[in-house]
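Troubleshooting: if your tokenizer reports a length mismatch, compare against these two reference records.
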Amino acid sequence: MMVSVDRLGLPKGFVEQWPLWLVIFVVALQPVGRLPEVPILVMALFGLKDVVSCRRELFSNLGFRLFSLLFLCFWLPALASLPDAVNVEKGLSSTLGMLRFYLAGIFIIHRLDTLATHRLLSMAVAAILAFWALDGIVELLLGHDIFGLSSGSSLYITGIYGDNKRLGYALVAFLGVALAAMICKKQLVWSLSFSILMLFVVFISGTRMAWLALAWFVLIAAIVLWYAGYRPNRKYLAGALVMLLFVGAVGSQTPSVKQKVSASLAAFNGSSLDTASSGRISIWQTSVDMFSDNWINGVGVRGFRYAYADYSNPDDMFIHGEEQKIGAYHPHQIVLEMMAEMGVIGVTGLLGAVFIMIYLLKVLAAHTHRFSFLYAVGIATLLMPLNTHLSMYSSYWASLFWFLAALLFAAIRAEGIGANKH
């Protein structure tokens, strides 16, 4: 028997916004392991329904077409890598599993089709990120967050993420979405306060990957704005410099930052570059050797760890396992990941994705006051080749990347860029 909204006592608007709530749950549940997969799977099922029932409307929209093209840039190389994959079962499950992200993306593009919805989403994401950040500051002060969680190491501040080191990078990943509503409404004080909070917590998180990603976020936004004809006010530049100096001065006194900076500077004090980079140089050299031997279609998507021992030094610090030697899980660099696991085909797909993002940023340079601009800056940051990365095909990072990509193209649709909404 169906129960009416009135009998449940829920506001009608609350129920009508259920697609938005599903999207918000994906963000809010990020620190809770694989739990974000639940709303993603629900969205994928409804996304399949949308493809069947609304395909003509979807195909007429620029956002949907570009999202599909971007997805193919990563999915087709994964598919092409399967015939020579070192672990076919793992590669096949990863390749087929990507389809759920595509269908969930279609749901987001089709259902989040108004600016009011994106405004609510942006404010909700900003509130979630602010909570995560403040929770991280609590851990800095007390040694544990408000739930009693901690990283268990002085090297990192992880807040609600507990023993997982993703806090800093998660803040950067969602930053464009969180800032969008404040920037679009020209709320300078709120935007500045929120940015200082995010900058500080990303800094004290102790994750160098997040530091670099945040720097790329700012640089990409600055380049596009300059291209669009914006010239910064000297007062704003001075204020930004003061903000950076303040965050740097305070953050540099925390144990996590001190130890990470010392580790990074060790390369200039006699230590090897490999040690200073936490073994990244060894991983990258192994990636290049792997590509040289499998240059057409690589060792197979998600096969890096299984082929690692065959190309690394016998005493490599990342090799473990007895019956089957397994090495580092992924190359920690998007270009090397595509090279090693999918060969030239993978690199071609990555170049296609980069060209799509460059095209989008050029289009959105005329719409820098809109949601889609900051969304696009966030996605471009995640694709930036000159960065260290999580694996583009891991369930966590793939779900996050395609979720954010779908939000970008949903905003393009809602804003009517490139085609009519209906």
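Reference record two:
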Amino acid sequence: MSDIRRTNTDPPHPALAEVIRLGNEGLRLADTANTARAEERLRQALALARSTLGEDDPATTVCLSNLGEFLSRGDRPDEALPLLRQALAQRDAASASHDVDRATPLANLALTLRRLGRFDEAEPLGWQALDLLAADGQGAGPEAAAVMNNLAQVLEHTERSGEAEPLMRRVIAIFERELGPDHPNVAVALNNLARLLERDGRAAQAEAPSQRHLLILHRAGRANGGRHALLGSAIANHAELLERLGASADQARAQVRALLDEDDAARASAQAGALPDLDRLAREGLAHGAPREAMDALFTATFRLPHWLFIATGDASAHQAHVKRDPGLERGAPMVKAFTDEARLQAYARENGLVGADAPALALRLAVPDEALAFLGGLAEAGVTHIHFNANRASDDHYLPLVQMPIVHRHLQRLGLLPADDG
């Protein structure tokens, strides 16, 4: 779905700002799975655009496309179809036939037609979208991969698995290169390939992509402190595949469990191997007379972590975190306790009586740097003054005033020790 932007140089209509606000709020709500409010905002944006800007205005076209795509994603393709057809017609009236801006509405319409089982109509639209992206130099990007994925499923449903398979493999390669090997989109593409191979009578070849699909979803859930919503179906599908390969039902379940346990053990081992290094860097960076480079090394390692973990308190969905005043640190200043891994967080929670012996603390896991720094900014506004890393007894801790965290981050970027911000 697309943000609403004015692309011409005409003076903006007074209502345009409100259309943009409603539409973009709807997109954000859709991304957080708040579907009822997202639909309400997207419909409000479309109604206001139609009544004030006119049916043919570019902002109205974007609103039509966004609402149609939202409904299609929500398994309501019948409702989405007329909206997407109108959006494409209005885009065609305003653009040349070779304009790359037509690719997205073409792809959205093709996806919806495929979901309705209208494969003969969906296929040519998908190829048109792919041709436009390729002509614009985007033929090997994520948007093209999404179009290829839809086309591959159309080809499979029309019993052309020989044509669908190479497209699916291209999708996987593009997503791995552009998004990373453990991205959920890679998992979806791997699952599509596994199911195609299985239905094509090649169960043995399907095992590897099915296993990778399962492990990616398992890791994604662990990274977010829970269980991925699709993990249950992935476990069931992989177990059924193992049964087709000759395992009994009990053996298949045991093999899946062992696979997940081995992945957890490997992850824990990798984390454990990194912990002493952080402790050493903390000791060296905070030693009396230590050079500035030692402190830079400590915070470079801290900022290179994928996540920082906080102990969630109160309503975890509101992102409240455990804050404590330690009399021996900065005259009892309020410090949010942060941790570089789950084991340290749980050790601190037990040591400080925040949980019982058998009940783990709820971890709030925030991506570094953007999500974590934004969260710390909110805490600073609420009166928290410091962040205190790894305050459990067995660790070498380090802390810093919250206001200095973004300054330190920019300093390390200027030194080339951390990647520069995009743009």
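Descriptive notes for reference record two:
- The first strand starts at residue 307 and ends at 311.
- The chain has a mean pLDDT of 85.
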